[in-house]
Amino acid sequence: TKAHLTLDPHFTIGAVDRRLFGSFVEHLGRCVYQGIYEPGHPSADEEGFRSDVVDLVRELGVSTIRYPGGNFVSGYRWEDGVGPVDQRPRRLDLAWHSTETNRIGLDEFANWLSHVDAELMYAINLGTRGVLEALDVLEYANIRQGTHWSDLRAANGHPEPHSIRMWCLGNEMDGPWQLGHSTADEYGSLAARAARAMRQVDPDLELVVCGSSSAQMPTFGEWERVVLEHTYDVVDYISCHAYYEPKDGDYDSFLASAVGMDRFIEAVVATADHVKAVRGSDKEMLISFDEWNVWYQSRYQNVDRITDVQSWPEAPRILEDSYSVLDAVVFGNLLISLLRHCDRVKSASLAQLVNVIAPIMTEPGGPAWRQTTFFPFAITSELATGEALELKLESPTQQTDEYGEVPLVDAVATHDAENGHTAVFLVNRSQTEAVELTIDASSLGEFSGASATTLADADMHAANTLQDPERVAPAGNDSVSVEGGVIRVVLPPVSWTAVKVK
Ligand code: AHR
């Protein structure tokens, strides 16, 4: 089977924002406790943070980290998590039926972020709280000194403000599972009031309003329209959330999940542009795809939820999906979809970072390791710089139940005019056929060679586990050759590949 693509550095889609390589840390399961934080672990630093996890997060190449939720945030009182640790209250976490100790809060998390060199994206609670509490946490985080909350931060040992630029106005407020779930009209009105108030403190904040929890929500589309009619002038981004998993063993549809992501993004762009047109606005609404991943939600739904409210556990093992090669190929393809839309998707968060549907896993007192999904993220984050390019792709197709006829090969390329670096990211969605791909890169001018890294396995269900943490890793793809500006590479069945042009 053969496919062909042509790239030309003149045909650009848009600049690749570093914030596309963001992630998400929620107070959920073992993401914070036993994930990033485990005092007493052999690798823990004096603050109790695992340095083996810090090293892996740095290797992953994460830019911005959304915190502290997720569903958790809709019941959260941010001030529980600051001040003397021994005085912090233990609380019921209604979202995940857990007990929250509040050992880690805003100040500790901001400290941890400085170890991993990432930016904080902070979500406020608009589920059970409102404008005043949003102003309080903004004052605590960003005002230098001389006010109640900023002086309290300094007294808590943090004289420098955290200077948070990006703020999420609540989480998944369209979801019936969300504490404080409301109609688009109610939420849009509250989000607009919160945004206006926050901008009275600092007009330059970057604000994200909640879009839909998935494109399958019954209110999808209408939710975006109504919420944006309330908030268009006072927010910068609308969020998208999406999780993908195979249904009834239909791997062909699962392998085409990025087609679903493409359609989702394009529908939100169309809706935002409709609101723009109706308002006669010059402003372009951007997208923050601030939760995306493969997530075996059906597995979670089939597990007994911990229900006895008298004994909700601390940091339970929940949502600890183990990812296969197949999952990582779909995951790499989702990154391709995000890059392809980088003119409008300027921020994205892989949900989540450690233990909970995560690229990094840990054992208490034991090792930390990379899941299969770690690799496409780390490699794309490293190589995708400059601008994304429009490609001319000729690929055979296959029929899927969920998305109709889809190309077997999907691709995006990036080109960095500053240093001349070009990278092409590819997937082969076929379960049976290798694809011989030719890339006409002659428009790049002279280049001396190309190298490729491929993630594939004879067993597409292979995964990295505690027992075998290095079972799966990407490997150099020896099939690459270059002749007269044309690169040839063979893409094995169910594979993800990055080609670097030298
Ligand atoms: O990432 C897990 C959960 O998925 C988040 O808490 C929520 O926002 C979404 O439904």
From TrEMBL:
| GO function term, MF aspect, one | alpha-L-arabinofuranosidase activity
| A single BP term in Gene Ontology | polysaccharide catabolic process
Which controlled-vocabulary keywords does the entry list? Carbohydrate metabolism, Glycosidase, Hydrolase
Where do transmembrane segments lie in this chain? none
Report if keyword Transcription is assigned: no
| Pfam families the UniProt entry points to | Alpha-L-AF_C, ASD1_dom
- Alpha-L-arabinofuranosidase C-terminal domain spans which residues? 290-495
Q: What is its EC number?
A: 3.2.1.55
| Catalytic reaction equation(s) | Hydrolysis of terminal non-reducing alpha-L-arabinofuranoside residues in alpha-L-arabinosides
Q: Looking at its record, which EC class is this enzyme?
A: hydrolase
Instruction: Tell me how this protein assembles.
Output: Homohexamer; trimer of dimers.
Q: Which family does it belong to?
A: Belongs to the glycosyl hydrolase 51 family.
List the PANTHER family hit by this protein, alphabetically. ALPHA-L-ARABINOFURANOSIDASE C, ALPHA-L-ARABINOFURANOSIDASE C-RELATED
Query: What name appears for this protein in its UniProt entry?
Result: non-reducing end alpha-L-arabinofuranosidase
